[in-house]
Amino acid sequence: MESSDRRLRVAAARAGYLSSGAADPGAVSDFVAASWRRSQGAGVAADGGEVPYIGDVDTTSRLVRCSQPIIDRLIEATEDLPLSIALSDSKARVLARVDTTRTIGLRIDSISLAPGFDYAEGHIGTNGVGTVLESGRSVHIVGPEHFHERFQPYSCSGAPIHDPMTGHIEGVLDLTCLTEHSTPMLHSIVRSAANDIEQSLLNDRSLRQQALFEAFLRIESRSKTAVFAIGGRVTMANALAQSIFDPAEQRMIAHHATYLMEGRQAVDDEIELPGQRLAHLKGTRVSAGSEIAGIVVEVHAVQEGSTPRARGIRHTTKRTTGSRSAAGAFTSSSRPGALDQDSNSPLWRRACNDVAAALHRNESLLVTGEAGTGKVSLITATFHHLHPGSRSIELDADDLADLAHDRTDEATFETDAPTLFILRRLQDLTPDGVTKAHAFLDDIAMSDRPVCAAATVSGACADADPVRELLPHFQRSASVPPVRHRIDDLPALIRQLLAKHSHGRSTSLSAAATRTMARYTWPGNVRQLDEALQAALDKRPVGEIQCEDLPGYCYQTSGRTLTALESIERDAIVQALRDAGGNRVQAAASLGIARSSLYRKLKSFGIEVD
After folding, report:
1. Partners of 297 in the beta sheet?
2. Sign of the C-alpha dihedral, residues 136, 142, 145, 151?
3. What are the residue ranges spanned by the domains of the chain?
4. Where is there biased composition of kind Polar residues (predicted)?
5. 0.70 cut: is pTM over it?
6. Mean of the pLDDT values across residues 486-492?
């Protein structure tokens, strides 16, 4: 057990530190003294305050899943010791807790060591979770070594859990007990258990990669075609694939295979490669447990001669026979102007073709895609290109719900010009709005005037009740891809958007800024890209836009959505790194945080600065 005399000496040293700002080096280690200074510098009160509750944590994450067997073994091995075992993520947020006895559980409840609570050192001072993340090493904090007096009845032993592939800290394992039950042996136990969890993480990752590799070998051994395997950061290609397809074509195939892997439909598709070559993809999704490990695709190069055909992607099960009109949307002469001429994305070219095919025949069209992908812009530009002198009218869900029948007649029949009604946000219709939408679409279908309808739906809402009820009114559908699945189009998109906002001024994007924007996932799609370029032009209205002109979120490569406070912190870190020329030591010093804290935040926010 820990010495009571030692705890008394540490308590006296703590009291001296709080009054004088200096810690007795004979009573406390430099490590603990450094943590006290960080705690005080972060504004932690030594005698007040609560553990903040975040709530938004993933209690079913890969870390929790891989840690559970080790935690179960720990419970069995320490069942005679009143002990609480807690697992936290890389932001010091508690993910799980298990107690060996009900009594210790009740005591630990009083300090809020429970899922959803934030144990960052900057919030509650020296402890067995946050201090591990700040220092990057295991800790054994006993009694008065805790900065906050609320935690002094306890002993905390914590160890970092590293991702064995990247070396980054994924979380913290912590053992907490009352000080009278504390022993240095707990420090050894928690480090050993953390090592076991790291091995479990390695095995889990290896299982996915092994499943993908075995599927690749199995399919490649019997296939006489080019074979690719894509999963996470792993891409494999057999010798035939590397000889048939150049690097740009391989990248295009890999991008499309990833898109197909995320969907639910059968993986059997065609894409057009540069040089008007078709590639037929037939894929197999690979699972490891309940998760998708990746996809293996067999790719055939298809030669079709000079027969006119659709550009982009075609589902092989939907081929039709017979001639196609030279003026129709299926020939190159009928494509919607410049909408796809600079595109390297088969997904975008297919969307353009599908929209043009429907609007050329005045067929009702349903267009799906994530918010901000440019669904309405694509529909409108295509319609006006196909029907010069036409008009388009946009109605959102609220407008449609308020639309009276006589207004429908007036709007539909007041002109002979080709007219397109675009119904936006179909998924947001109320039951009354759905009823009016039925009548509205019926009126359009029965009209003898050149009028048609198109509707847009956010991708995640395609199965919403209002959409399902109105599906019988539509003859065709098209899907607009998100920016992350047409990243090769980013330079062309940037040029178009800069031209739109520059009004004749000479503007461009530097190579470094282009690389930074290409690494971002653009969850807001084209709309967010447009906003980012407008913000950059506000800073540099003429000339070559540099990295420092871009909004802070462009440096974020993680997929999660940051809170408002996290976004402010991210922008401050990005600016500090810019000011320090990328020197992380200088940036951490200017921000007043430990270098380890900066590294942790860079990983958590997914910040990359050239």
Report:
1. 228, 283
2. positive
3. 28-200, 223-302, 346-481, 488-605
4. 319-345
5. no
6. 85
